[in-house]
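re: ur msg from earlier - yeah i can do the protoporphyrin IX containing FE complex, just paste it... oh wait u already did. ok heres what im feeding in:
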Amino acid sequence: MSETTQALTYANYLKLEELLSLQQPRSSGPEHDEMLFIVIHQVYELWFKQLLHELDRVKALLEQDESHHAQHTLKRILTILKVMVAQLDILETMTPLEFLSFRARLEAASGFQSDQFRQIEFVLGLQSAQAINRFPEGGRARAALERRYHESTLWDAFLQYVRREGYQFEDPQPALITIYRNDPKNAELCERLVDLDEGIQEWRYRHVKMVERTIGARPGTGGSSGAAYLRETLGRPLFPDLWAIRSQL
Ligand code: HEM
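and the outut:
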């Protein structure tokens, strides 16, 4: 029987044979902890994929003025983010020496080169032409980043939605203050965006702490200064207007 005529099973629906053949340690032995390192990064890439899928949906729902559904999808995104932050605990069970046992085999590979992480940053408004140039021309990653660089961001979609809700503005902050004071439905939506912003910052914070405890002040495999570089990315909000208005509410 050819594959297309085979009955659907758990294994072939999920492509388990392929999935389970994708964890290939590079260390000789191989070092026990390299399996965890590979699995956890692969799991993160899958969550990144799902986040992009859901972020695109939030944007589309806002474009259709479906703010209730947009909030529902944001709730799912936040739940995924919580799981992503919690998963760092698993990697923190790996001691510095356990990591060093295979770190050299990673060569220049690093999460720094995750195009899906950059895509998430792009959709959330942190777009950088420099980040695109790190990916080879003609490849999937480059094409995806170039597309997202030119696309509207979640914040753009939100502001357009707010305008269609009847708010006129050049500077959005006074309109956002009015929303918080008089418009509970849209204030709720603003709160979910603040949750999202805080969730991403929380991941960055937990990641840098994990990096500090695992490699200290060593430079990263991706060529940066390591924890010092990562600390610079902390406290950089996605939606600064939503933070700025809080002292005026
Ligand atoms: C022992 C575990 C880990 C260590 C020691 C580590 C180390 C680092 C370092 C030093 C950097 C800075 C760039 C560089 O020079 O390499 C970095 C960036 C990054 N790592 Fe990790 N990492 C670890 C686990 C993870 C995991 C599980 C993920 C999940 C995908 C991840 C995702 C990222 C991302 C997305 C960046 C880019 C951050 C940015 O540019 O803002 N890392 N990592």
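cool cool. The chain has a mean pLDDT of 96. ping me if u need the other ligands too
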